[in-house]
Each structure stands twice: as C-alpha cells, then as structure tokens.
Amino acid sequence: MNKKFNLNFFSDQKFRSLFYQTLVVGLFALGIYYLTMTTAHNLEKRNIATGWNFLNNPAGFDISFSPFLDFKSTDTHLKVYYVGVLNTLLVSFTGCIAATILGFVIGIIRLSNNWLLSRTAYVYVEFCRNIPLILQIILWYSILLLMPRIKQAIEVVNGFFISNRGLYSPRPVYESGFSIVFFVFIVGIVASVWIAKWSKKRQEKTGERFPVLWTSLALIVLLPIVFFFILGSPITFEYPVLKGFNFKGGMVIRPEFIAMFLALSIYTGAFISETVRSGILSVTKGQREASAALGLKATWIMRLIIIPQALRVIIPPLTSQYLNLTKNSSLGIAVGYADLVHGFGGISLNQTGQAIECMVITMATYLVISLTISFFMNIYNRSIQFKEK
Length: 389
Fold this sequence. Notes:
alpha+beta
C-alpha cells in the first residue's frame, strides 16, 4: 500500500508562522553579529583599546555633588559610575514624589468651580507643557546663579544659608542609639500599612470606621519621638560657618540639583495633572451625586469615592510619566549636574576613550531602572483593578 506524504509544508499555517519568526530572529542575530564584528575590526584597525579594565583606573577628576559617597579624584571610574547612578536615582525619586503631589493638586484645582483657581492652573499646565524641558532647566539654573554671592549669603532660618553656590544647611551627626529610633520608625510604617488593611476589612464587615490616620501618625511620628528622648537625643547637628571664601561644615545642596529638581517636578507635574483630571472625569457624575445624597462631605467624596475609582485610569499613564522623568534626568548634563550621563557617560568616556563600553553600561542602567519602575507600578496597578468573580 503506497502512502502519500504531503511535502508542501507551507500549506500548514503553524509551520509558516514558526518559519517566518525563526527567519526574522536569525536575520536579526546575523545583523547583530555583523555589526559586532565590524565594530571590533574598526576599533582594532584604529588601535582603540577595548574591554572593561578602564573601570579600575583612577578617574583623575572631582565630582561637585556626591551626597552618598565620598569621592576623590584618585577614585576609579567604577566609583564615578556608582556616584552617577545614585545621583540619577536621587533626582528621579524626589522628582517623582514632588511631581505626583503637584500633579494631583493641580489636576483637582483644574476641576474647581472657582474661576480664578481653575484658570491659573490652566495657564500653568499650558505654559509648562509647551516649553521644552531643557529650557526650563536652564531657566531655573540661571535664576539660582543670580542669588547673592557666598559672602552675602542670605540666612533663611537658623543655620540655613542660600547663595549662588547652593543651599547650605546643618548636617546631622548620628550617635549611638539612633539606629533604634530609625528601626522604630520603620516598624511604625509597617504597622500603619497593616492597620490600614485591617481597618478596611473591618469596615466592610461591620461598617464601623477605625481612626487609621491618627493611629498611623502616633506610630510613625509620636512613637519614634518618644524613643528619641528616652535614648537621650542621639543626634546632633554640625552647622555651616562662613570661613574665608566658603562655608565650612554642614552640608550643601548644589544649584545644579535644585534646578533639576524644580524643572523636572514642575514640568512632569503639568502632565500628571492632566492625567489626574482625565481620571476624575472618567468617573460618572452619578457617583458624586449619589454620594452627596448620602450626606458625605465633598472631601470624603473625592478621597473615598472618586479618587479610588479614578486611579484605575490614572496609574498606567502615570507610570509613563515616571519613566519620562527618570530618562529626562539625563538632561542634567546641560547644567553640569553630576548624574550618570554627565559623569560616567561624559567625562569618563572622554578621558578613557571607551565610548562603546561607557554607552552600553549607561544604556543598560537606564533600561534596568525603567524596567524596575514599570514592574512595581504594574504590580500596584493590578492590585487596584476590579477583581472579576
């Protein structure tokens, strides 16, 4: 008995799909291999060194702003990378917090019945969104450079001085026992989160509300203060003192960081405000009217009814704004902010000539930071979505 074999594999849809995908992946891998080999050949032809040994070489330059690590010109390029990453994370993290607060406030004000408030918020949003970010960074930096010189520094409050070199403030000196106070503070935060979840379940079952706010304030603020005094105030402050042409002691926040923080926060806050406004408008008007009919206060309606539902619309674009702010922090090179691009991707690259290696590390770092932000924001987004039963 003769068996006929169908050799026309392309008539099978699954085979065709697998074949074309394999072909695309193969061509992509071949292209990467070609680019890699061509680059290596050209580098060797021009006698340009390659490899990662340059990371252990002395940097040979100073970094003006390094609040987390003590940096000297004799330290390695690898430490330049660490300083740049920490500075990038610092301005990104603080900027995201400030932009979120500002964006929520402005977004709610945009919907206010007060004509003056809503129009003022509208002007702010349209102005900030339509001016390039780099110009706003340079504007804030220029304003800060117009501050008084170091000898004419303005004392804002006791121990805080502002000049064109930055904001000088007392530096905390931690003593024995402060770690216990910090531990109590962390425990208070964890306990407050647990109490908030327990209170929500309790209210759903019994309808009774628990004073979560006051309990959390007591655990996070009052309890650490009590331990602070019990342990004999285990913290002192080193105040800045003007000696010669600069302040000695204390700590300083450089104008480069302040300009970046203000520009990133104000610029991104304008976009977040529109996201918040659209999220609030996505909640049907009947929700507000039904809540008001039950006798709830306007602030309660916004906090307990409108915002929780609006978050399901707000969080996805809010994640994009966080990613944009983090990537926009690389514009700090325009004012000399010592972030990852300025220090490692700029000065170290020029001094070592290892352009490809520095750019690969810099790009990979931004990729990891962005993916981490997306990961946690997606977890939070899933937690607030409606659960189908």
